[in-house]
């Protein structure tokens, strides 16, 4: 895993016109090569001092005037000698400077993520922080920026360390007993409980992958329900512009529409779907099939019900979402006569949804469905009424947004999240599984087996921090990065 000795070069800024464009070199020849482009800079420049310099071509003609910044190894981002040329942000000029740097045979173009990879290989940052760099660059919501920044300052690294350190100590204790049974007597006595508690730490960390995904990719929320319930009108209101067609003819929406919004810093992709109904036309039926497919893929389905929908009907609509959590709302609430409207207004009363009950049941689970025997009002289920909204007037829309976030997020703030990726979760799963087997071994097997499993747990965990990673894994990880990062 020793890095090669080549000096690498790449643009550190986007290849587009801008105020400033940066060419960055890292490696043993960085200073010498950069000084050939900026001969006015002294041979031993003061590290971290910004020199104003002329950048010249092969015959000494001036191409630009810019800043020259030298970072002396190991006090640099990569841990190697680094030079940055801060030129004017002309893509063509920067290509000229890049080509000049590449004329030296010690220099080659950097691979995607190679600067960060070198920072990792030189122990400047651990793997969780290197990955946080990529998360930060890719972040497209405020929550994603904040969570990545927490990762960059070592939040995940700290959590992993709090598992890795005691695990390593346990492993050392066990190996001690195995190697020096007389001296280390009793060091293994607590092995079972120690393993069990470490396992629960690993499981808890692993459980954060869901939140990590929500923050990283944003949540997906679909509006669905019967035709003509006011879904598209509500969608437009939530998005803040007239994206979806609205009409009083049932079956107006055929294709699902999507829009990206940011609520409380959390990215949310909102979908408007084709209304569901029996026996639609052929094209509309295709739209309905697509709605069902989408419903199974989203994080939350918002069921928009027309006023006066019966409890039985509502329950049946809710089943359409399958395993996806549902938040039911009563739409078009501006047409309701008032808070007492449900009394006798729909069907037989007992089976009707209480429409008017004011407050939003934030975080309430699925709409409780009372059976006939409970008389529609059981002692244990105070049957929260679906919150009322009107896409037309905007009433209840802010409260709906709050409810959606509460259902997606379930408390806490998105910025407090540790970004556990699918990759981390997989390594943590293997850690927990090995600890599970270790726990079993502590009861029924030999100390060798127990220690072996603890060793395997450590190895799996090392894939998160980077203490045990293969080159192949690093290749995959750093492919996510852009060139010059
Ligand atoms: N111009 C520029 N801006 C940049 C970067 C860069 O490489 N160049 N970065 C690149 O991604 C980020 C900053 N990251 C950096 C991290 C460490 C060091 C560094 O020199 N570390 C030394 C010294 C620390 C100190 O003296 O406080 C070290 O860790 O030893 C520099 C940049 C974002 N902004
Ligand atoms: N009074 C009132 N009318 C509404 C409201 N929302 C929608 N409507 C009206 O109801 C009709 C249907 O609205 P849409 O938003 O197209 O309903 P939809 O659920 O998307 O309908 P489909 O796409 O056909 O399933 C239109 O005439 C809207 O103007 C509301 O909050 N209050
Ligand atoms: Mg519609």
UniProtKB/TrEMBL annotation:
InterPro entries: G_TrmE, GTP-bd, GTP-bd_TrmE_N, GTPase_MnmE, MnmE_dom2, MnmE_helical, P-loop_NTPase, Small_GTP-bd
Any GO molecular function: GTPase activity
Binding positions for GTP per the UniProt entry: 228-233, 247-253, 272-275
Ranges for domain G: 220-320
Cofactor note: Binds 1 potassium ion per subunit.
Entry annotated with the keyword Flavoprotein: no
Function: Exhibits a very high intrinsic GTPase hydrolysis rate. Involved in the addition of a carboxymethylaminomethyl (cmnm) group at the wobble position (U34) of certain tRNAs, forming tRNA-cmnm(5)s(2)U34.
Protein name (database record): tRNA modification GTPase MnmE
Species of the source: Corallococcus carmarthensis
Lineage of the species this protein comes from: Bacteria, Pseudomonadati, Myxococcota, Myxococcia, Myxococcales
């Amino acid at each position: 895993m020793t890095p090669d000795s080549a000096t690498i070069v790449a643009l550190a800024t986007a290849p587009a016109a801008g105020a400033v464009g940066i060419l960055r070199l890292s490696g043993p020849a960085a200073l010498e090569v950069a000084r050939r482009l900026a001969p006015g800079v002294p041979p031993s420049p003061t590290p971290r001092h910004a020199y104003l310099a002329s950048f010249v071509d092969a015959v000494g003609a001036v191409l630009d005037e810019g800043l020259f910044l030298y970072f002396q190894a190991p006090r640099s981002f990569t841990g190697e000698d680094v030079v940055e040329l801060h030129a004017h942000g002309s893509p063509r000029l920067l290509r000229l400077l890049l080509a000049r740097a590449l004329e030296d045979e010690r220099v080659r173009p950097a691979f995607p993520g190679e600067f960060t990879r070198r920072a990792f290989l030189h122990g400047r940052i651990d793997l969780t922080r290197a990955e946080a760099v990529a998360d930060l660059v890719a972040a497209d919501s405020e929550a994603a920026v904040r969570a990545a920044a927490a990762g960059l300052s070592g939040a995940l690294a700290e959590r992993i360390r709090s598992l890795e350190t005691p695990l390593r100590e346990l492993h050392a204790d066990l190996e001690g007993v195995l190697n020096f049974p007389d001296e280390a007597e009793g060091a293994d006595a607590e092995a079972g409980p120690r393993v069990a508690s470490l396992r629960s730490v690993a499981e808890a960390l692993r459980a954060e992958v869901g939140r990590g995904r929500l923050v990283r990719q944003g949540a997906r929320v679909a509006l669905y329900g019967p035709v003509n319930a006011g879904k598209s009108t509500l969608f437009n209101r939530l998005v803040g512009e007239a994206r979806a067609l609205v009409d009083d003819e049932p079956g107006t929406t055929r294709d699902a529409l999507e829009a990206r919004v940011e609520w409380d810093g959390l990215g949310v992709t909102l979908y408007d779907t084709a209304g569901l109904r029996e026996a639609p036309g052929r094209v509309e039926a295709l739209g309905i099939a697509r709605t069902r497919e989408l419903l199974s893929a989203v994080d939350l389905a918002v069921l928009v019900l027309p006023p006066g929908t019966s409890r039985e009907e509502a329950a049946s609509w809710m089943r359409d979402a399958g395993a996806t959590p549902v938040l039911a709302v009563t739409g078009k609430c501006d047409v309701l006569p008032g808070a007492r409207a449900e009394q006798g207004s729909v069907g037989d009363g007992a089976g009707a949804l209480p429409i008017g009950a004011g407050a939003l049941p934030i975080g309430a689970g699925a709409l409780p469905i009372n059976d006939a025997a409970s008389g529609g009002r059981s002692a244990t289920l105070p049957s929260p009424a679906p919150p009322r909204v009107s896409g037309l007037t905007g009433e209840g829309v802010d409260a709906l947004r709050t409810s959606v976030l509460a259902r997606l997020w379930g408390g806490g703030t998105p910025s407090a999240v540790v970004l556990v990726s699918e990759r981390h979760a997989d390594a943590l799963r293997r850690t927990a599984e090995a600890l599970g087997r270790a726990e079993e071994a502590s009861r029924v097997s030999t100390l060798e087996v127990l220690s072996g499993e603890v060793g395997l747990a450590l190895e799996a965990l090392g894939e998160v921090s980077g203490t045990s990673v293969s080159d192949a894994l690093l290749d995959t990880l750093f492919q996510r990065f852009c060139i010059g990062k």
